[in-house]
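Re: [help] complex structure
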Amino acid sequence: MSGDLIHLELRYRSLAQHYYRKTSERTPDYNCVAYVAGDYQKPWWPVPYQSPYYWPIDNAEGDESIKEFIEAFSFLGYECCTDSDFEPGFQKIVIFTDEEGFPSHMAKQLTNGYWSSKCGDLEDIEHELNALVGNSGIGYGQVVQFMKKQIVQ
Amino acid sequence: MSKLAIPERYLPGIELLLGLEPEKAKVLSSLIDQVIPCITVDGVLNSLSDKIANLDLIDLRKILEFLLAINDLRIADHSNRHDLVLNISEAIIEEKLTSNQDFQDINFVQNRLTQFLGKEGTLSLNYLWRLSAPSHSPDVVYAGSPNISPSDLLELEFYRLAENWKYETSSLSSITKKVRHPDYLKIIKMGGNVLPFILRSLMKEPDHWFVALKSITNEDPIPYGASFQDSVNGWIAWGRERGLI
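Output below.
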């Protein structure tokens, strides 16, 4: 826990009870989905608005279901898996959903087994997986789907 | 002679603010910056008081009232923060608004005010102000300043909504939730008159104004796939071409 990040701890109430550390300054240039996909130039979200919002597959209907997220990351080479265990040679990612079952956040696993998140327009942090769990207003909801992709050297 | 007139009722808050021990001031400024939304002012006060020892609610309210009054002025006057801090500091020193000799050093006063009037601090202050004060007019005013015009009130309202929107949505990942926030929708409903405010805000502190700009103007000068910064620059160029900024 760091007093310097009390603004994050107030927004994500589980954070203070878990290991975390800041890994970047805040910026609106990209969001958690873009961060997981490796794009630091524009936010990703499945809405048919306009630039800079981006989605890798056609989504004229503005479908924001978890199925849509799984399809988008399947398109990027990921496949669904069942757990958060670190697997050498694979990049794992996770989708959080809110109380209504809609995706609310994504994070990616680091090689040390911890997870890395871009917190909205705020900072990037390295954290334990459950550090961002919690209902809307105090967290990003629940962890519902893991995916993984083989890392090409 | 100072250019600012500060009502006497804020003097206790000034004394208390300047009298905070450095560590306590640091903690309080950080906590004010991060007030939890959607609770009452008294809840906010209680929340802050619980985290800062030896400062009772009445004292904390006096400090907040002074800071909120300054913040109103900052918004109404579109003040450069540095100039505002300097003017307030001069008023405090020159008008001998504090009898404590320890607070007669203008550098000390400036540093303390700057600590509480940082970019982030104003967000929460705005939020608190919105809940606690029915009037939009600042009552710490520059001597001889005219009444606030309807245009100023529109801008004041824009910044109040915008700062609350930023505070409440900056941690959200969902773009949809950001642009469907009630305050964001209110800004869109304000129509074309707020375009200069949005564009100036985009210049000073880039944020997710693209949906509002497109909704208000029915135009979209940014090609799909552009980066966030290119989108910011594109809308600013669009505004300049039309003389909006």
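The first helix of chain A runs from residue 6 to 11.
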